Amino acid sequence: MLVAAAVWVVALSPVFATRTVVVRGTSLLTADQVTTAAAVPSGVPLVRQDTAASAARVRTLAPVRDVAVSRSWPDTIALQITERTPVVVFPVNGTYLLVDAEGQAYAQVAAAPADVLQAGGRADDSAVTSAVGRTMATLPASVRSQVRDVRADSPAAVTLELDKGRTVVWGGPEDPQLKGQVLDVLLKQVGGAKVYDVSAPAFPTTR
């Protein structure tokens, strides 16, 4: 009898009904945007909330990389948001388009984030922004620290400008790890070159 009563209190009674949704971890998104997307039904006992469904709905928001949904007794659902982090930004009509390591363009903001490289090229083409984001994320840290500019007018024509007036012809998004490794070696072994072409990483050239 006591067990049955306890089950009823937790699963069916209004004692542990959902009354509050708490959002943590956002900077680009507002709490209202997240709670609206989550669509957590009020009044439903916490134990009966479909937290997986709420999480899936929140993940449809472009700035969200991940979300953890938890129950906080007696009456609260907590949404812990992990937002995407930009690896490059594209200037767009006085604003800045943020692109993450997965090549996802996920937000436009009024001010460029500090210490994030600004890119040139077709910001209106998602294939271009994706190629640039993935390229920057793939570069070895030793190479990335030397990049001063990146540009792409098509997904197959990514170009990096390094310090000391050096140019890297990266090409398209294929074989990014191999390109990064080859470029790292070339920069160390052929330090006097001005152009490093790794668009075909099996046959790189310098001049």
TrEMBL record:
The UniProt record lists the keyword Transmembrane helix: yes
Gene Ontology biological process: cell division
Subcellular location: Membrane
Domain POTRA: 16-84
PROSITE patterns membership: POTRA (PS51779)
InterPro entries documented for this protein: Cell_div_FtsQ/DivIB_C, FtsQ_DivIB, POTRA, POTRA_FtsQ_type
Assigned keywords, A-Z: Cell cycle, Cell division, Cell membrane, Membrane, Transmembrane, Transmembrane helix
GO CC annotation terms, alphabetical: plasma membrane
UniProt protein name: Cell division protein FtsQ
Classification of source organism: unclassified sequences, metagenomes, ecological metagenomes
Gene: ftsQ_11
